[in-house]
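Researcher: We plan to redesign the surface later, but first we want a full-length starting point. Tokens attached.
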């Protein structure tokens, strides 16, 4: 008995070759009907026997194109139409709004053609198909059609046109489809002499790098700065020029070469080879293949696979490239040729660029595989954006402006939260311009006109002022509440949980700087129930750069002792103590990040940090693995409960005097945090009867702490939630802001039309 079914598919099903896939599948199974794009996904109607329809539904999910993501499949029975064939129908674009796919790494079929001497795209560095290639980075306006992308200036040749129109071709409706005759091309600029070469531009650039030069390379979401990772002098020169003395660089190489320098688990391999092709931070092998200056004093290194055809061609010349973002210090990644000389001219001598414009810049995404939980994202950009992250409840049109550092914003409506790519630190003009430009684009693309604005609680933050300019009702959300709610929201946890936010800095509800906080609550109500005790930052936030200052201050305040860290002159110690005596020169913080800095400063592993959390990161890396003891601490029964760290500082000082190894001190310190965290959780759980625990905050990028915390809490019978779809750092804030503000707007009155002072 033939039947007819309607199948509505939602998710990432447009711009990823879904319709031709459906078409071929229906042909294969002898089903009739049609497929078409709609505003919310893909609509399919099929007719055939029950068995064939069941097989169709099964294959739809297991054989879907690599970049496709199916969120929902709704199947409804229909009356028979007795259709005779299967066809691809024109899209219905009633609201003119469709999703945009993220940029997708070169697929295996395209790779094969790239290296097939008989193929007309042999070695053509812009090869792509319905399964791969640029999407997000080339789109200007929606819907996603070639004429709305930066491919619009390239008129397709006859052969490409034929492919594009042929439903059986794997380039059917591949918007960026092109070839050597009709598509874009690479050129090599010599920035010193202003000359430009087109012939063999990529090979020449690779050769320059092989000879030790530093070259800017235009990729998918922006420029990379590249050098030979095996050439220590080149890497060292790049460090000097980029003013980046120690922060690890990422490497690009193929899988075979990656295996020579890092340990790769099955899961890590899967991430590396995925359509997202992120930088995966993995454990180094003890081998001297690449320069030790790439990731100095670091047991880990970040590796990404080639994800654009040009990368494959480059890798023919040398096996390992340092590929670092083409930017100056904290500014956004450079995406236009015109900026290369201006911004990167002092770093690179040459630029390998092409004439396909990058419309939307997008950094490489970064993360690591955390054994029992999968891929943990550190930076969510290329390959992810602009995919929405699902919200636990439907919201009205809203815009959350995110945090001050590591900014992302989120534009939301219904169940969709469009979390922006990594924007950066909102402390320079360039980043701010990027921030505002992307907000405008997101509003246009997704047709969301926000009714509410959400911003951080900090009255001085730029984002607070920007929110005011919208002249719309706005709501302020505390930074660490946003952290916890973000993690709960990702997991759709609607009941109460104990939230632990271990973080660097966030403006607290009491006007002080928070960062070591415990909460109890749900998506719409959070109460701070415990925190690390407040301690002074001598001279304010500037002491974050010099961890030893924090060590001196904490020792003075907590232990009434003059502590002189290794290699710090007594005059400097006295200066810090003087600053401490005058309260107006210090701010107080309950930050866990600062406690890490303090211990790093006491041990003396870093004097002045050159990148964020360098002290804490070094502390994690030196930790020994065989230590089971911990330092004592105090829990002061106050409301909120206060965690006293004086015994910890005492203990570390005593160990230092006894000559205990730094690796032991670090391990004991990590164990201490886990110990008091569990003690606080136990206490709260007993009082409130809650067994869910949720972890968020930048400190949980510390793999050692994260794994120990999760293990200990789970062993004690708690259900532990950690971030999965967003970073645990401030990249998750704007998403949490949306959720909390949406719930609070019913309870608190949003601040008026932007003219009411907070
Ligand atoms: Zn492809
Ligand atoms: Zn062509
Ligand atoms: Fe934070």
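Model: Full-length starting sequence:
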């Amino acid at each position: 008995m033939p039947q007819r079914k309607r199948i509505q598919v939602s998710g990432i099903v447009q711009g990823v070759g879904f319709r031709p896939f459906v078409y071929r599948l229906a042909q294969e199974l002898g089903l009739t009907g049609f497929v078409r794009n709609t505003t919310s996904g893909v609509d399919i109607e099929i007719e055939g026997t029950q068995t064939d329809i069941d097989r169709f539904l099964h294959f739809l999910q297991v054989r879907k194109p690599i970049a496709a993501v199916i969120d929902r499949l709704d199947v409804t029975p229909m009356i028979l139409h007795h259709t005779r064939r299967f066809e691809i129908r024109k899209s219905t674009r009633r609201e003119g709004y469709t999703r945009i796919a993220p940029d997708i790494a070169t697929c295996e079929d395209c790779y094969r053609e790239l290296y097939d001497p008989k193929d007309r795209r042999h070695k053509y560095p812009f090869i792509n198909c319905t399964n791969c290639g640029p999407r997000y980075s080339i789109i200007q306006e929606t819907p996603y059609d070639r004429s709305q992308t930066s491919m619009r200036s390239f008129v397709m040749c006859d052969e490409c046109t034929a492919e594009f129109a042929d439903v059986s071709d794997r380039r059917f409706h591949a918007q960026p489809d092109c070839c050597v005759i009709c598509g874009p091309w690479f050129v090599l600029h010599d920035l010193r002499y202003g000359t430009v070469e087109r012939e063999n531009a990529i090979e020449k650039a690779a050769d320059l790098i092989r000879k030790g030069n530093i070259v800017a390379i235009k990729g998918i979401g922006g420029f990379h700065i590249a050098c030979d990772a095996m050439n220590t002098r080149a890497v060292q020169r790049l460090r000097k020029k980029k003013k980046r003395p120690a922060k690890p660089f990422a490497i690009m190489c193929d899988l075979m070469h990656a295996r020579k320098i890092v340990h790769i688990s099955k899961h890590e391999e899967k991430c590396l080879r995925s359509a997202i092709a992120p930088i995966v931070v993995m454990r180094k092998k003890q081998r001297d293949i690449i320069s030790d200056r790439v990731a100095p004093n670091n047991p880990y290194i970040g590796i990404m696979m080639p994800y654009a055809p040009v990368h494959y061609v480059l890798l023919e010349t040398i096996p390992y490239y340092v590929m670092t973002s083409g930017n100056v210090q904290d500014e956004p990644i450079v995406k236009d040729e015109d900026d290369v000389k201006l911004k990167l001219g002092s770093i690179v001598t040459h630029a390998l660029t092409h004439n396909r414009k990058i419309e939307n810049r997008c950094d490489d995404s970064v993360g690591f595989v955390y054994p029992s939980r999968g891929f943990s994202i550190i930076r969510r950009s290329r390959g992810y954006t602009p995919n929405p992250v699902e919200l636990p409840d439907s919201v009205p049109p809203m815009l959350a402006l995110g945090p001050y550092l590591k900014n992302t914003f989120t534009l939301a409506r219904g169940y969709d939260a469009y979390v922006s790519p990594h924007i950066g630190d909102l402390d320079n003009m360039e980043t701010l311009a990027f921030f505002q430009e992307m907000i405008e684009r997101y509003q246009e693309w997704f047709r969301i006109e926000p009714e509410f604005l959400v911003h951080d609680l900090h009255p001085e933050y730029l984002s607070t002022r920007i929110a005011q300019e919208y002249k719309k009702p706005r709501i302020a959300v505390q930074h660490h509440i946003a952290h916890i709610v973000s993690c709960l929201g990702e997991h759709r946890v609607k009941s109460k949980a104990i939230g632990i936010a271990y973080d660097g800095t966030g403006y607290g509800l009491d006007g002080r700087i928070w960062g070591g906080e415990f909460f109890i609550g749900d998506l719409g109500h959070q109460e701070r129930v415990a925190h690390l005790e407040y301690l002074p930052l001598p001279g304010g936030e500037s002491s974050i750069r010099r961890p030893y200052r924090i060590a001196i201050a904490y020792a003075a305040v907590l232990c009434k002792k003059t502590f002189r860290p290794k290699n710090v002159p007594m005059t400097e110690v006295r200066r810090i103590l003087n600053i401490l005596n005058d309260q107006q020169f210090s701010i107080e913080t309950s930050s866990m990040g600062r406690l890490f800095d303090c211990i790093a400063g006491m041990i003396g592993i870093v004097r002045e940090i050159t990148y964020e959390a360098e002290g804490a990161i070094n502390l994690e890396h030196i930790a020994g693995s065989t230590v089971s003891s911990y330092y004592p601490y105090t829990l002061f029964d106050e409301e909120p409960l206060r965690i006293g760290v004086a015994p910890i500082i005492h203990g570390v000082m005593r160990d230092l005097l006894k000559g205990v190894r730094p690796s032991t001190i670090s391990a004991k310190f990590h164990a201490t945090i886990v110990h008091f965290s569990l003690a606080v959780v136990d206490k709260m759980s007993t009082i409130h009867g809650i067994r869910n625990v949720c972890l968020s905050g930048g400190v949980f990028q510390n793999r050692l702490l994260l794994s120990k915390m999760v293990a200990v809490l789970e062993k004690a019978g708690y259900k532990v939630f950690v971030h999965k779809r967003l970073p645990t750092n401030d990249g998750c804030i704007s998403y949490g802001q949306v959720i909390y503000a949406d719930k609070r707007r019913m309870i608190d009155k949003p601040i008026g039309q932007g003219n009411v002072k907070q």
